[in-house]
From TrEMBL:
Biological process according to GO: thiamine diphosphate biosynthetic process
GO molecular function: ATP binding; kinase activity; thiamine diphosphokinase activity
Pfam families: SteA-like_C, TPK_catalytic
Transmembrane segments: none
Keyword annotations: ATP-binding, Kinase, Nucleotide-binding, Transferase
Record NCBIfam families: division_SteA
Protein name (database record): Putative membrane-anchored protein
Domain annotation Thiamin pyrophosphokinase catalytic: ranges: 208-243
Residues in SteA-like C-terminal domain copies: 334-384
Annotated organism of origin: Tepidibacillus fermentans
Lineage per the UniProt record: Bacteria, Bacillati, Bacillota, Bacilli, Bacillales
InterPro entries linked to this entry: Put_SteA-like, SteA-like_C, TPK_catalytic, TPK_catalytic_sf
Signal sequence annotation: none
Amino acid sequence: MLFPKYNKSIKGNYLIDKKTKHLLRRIRTNQIAVIHHTDIDEIAAQGLIEKKVKAIINFSPSFTGSYPTLGLKKILDRKIPVFDVKNQTTHLFPKIPDQNKVEIDIVNNIAYFESLPERIMVEIEPCTIEKWEDLFKKARQNLENELGRFINNTLEHALKEKDFFLKPLKIPLLKTQIKGKHVVVVVRGTDYREDLSAIKSYIEDIKPVLIGVDGGADALLEYGLIPDIILGDMDSVSDQALRSGAEILVHAYPNGYAPGLKRIYDLGLEAKIIPSKGTSEDVAMLLAYEKQAEIIVALGTHSHMVDFLEKGRKGMASTILVRMKIGNKLVDAKGVSKLYHPQVHWKSLSFIGLAATTPILAISMINHDMVRLLQMMWINIKMIFM
């Protein structure tokens, strides 16, 4: 039997939202998530798992096989039933009430949504590991073609946008002092928890300026760290984070239009806008660079094709341009947790490190560039061995 935990049907209260990240802010344990999310990404999958949803009904294909993403597999591995709505009934999504009861007939593959004047019926099909594996093979085979399109899009838009990123960013007057300090930019990307845990002792030692990009602010709060700045379009950060006392910068379109401001004002908070092209994490790194940060540590940021395709972006032009601009100050901590070796502790190397660096320290006293190089080396050594 496909769902041994259930007899003939799955019943419960549901919550519906076209944007999964908005639904995750409202849904409760044991509710059924009704979404409209093509190729469920890993962050959305992790959020649904953590909310302990009873089941998921998706009005878009949970995995198309157009590129390799593991979101659906993560959910299925946790034994959470996932159903995709068949094409002929996907048009019913807007007619379904925001929240009510639903019954999923797992024998006849039909979902019945309670509504007035009558129930709404949609045809569904269960997602299985076997189907996912078949589509994943297809995705791997299609990877070269997808990468080609991604590169072409990136280069095309990079040429169009380069003049914008050559100019200084328009930054409002900030309360937070950045000049000469280390800055950690936190994005809630893949493995952000593990990576944040890996560099927490660095954060406690150096006390850098902490910039949470949207939900990255909540990631910091999870570890008892208060963001100094929250930057983003404000669509995936919690009210709790926004009320943490951080300086709030709303990422606006280049013309100054900032839809995220409304939410801030509705909460009775103050914010400034920062108009720019690119993603909010690009803007956060540019902000640190323009304000003369000594070192910029990026954690959880999006850096490769699958990352961007999962966000619905067909290229990464702005990210390439920004990293070209700030490169000598950037330390990318994404995936640093995978370098951790339990049998080695960085403190055990302190005497060796001291002996080896004594002559270098002497040189560094008269060479500012050597000081910066040593700082960069020390950060990377701590990330590997702590």
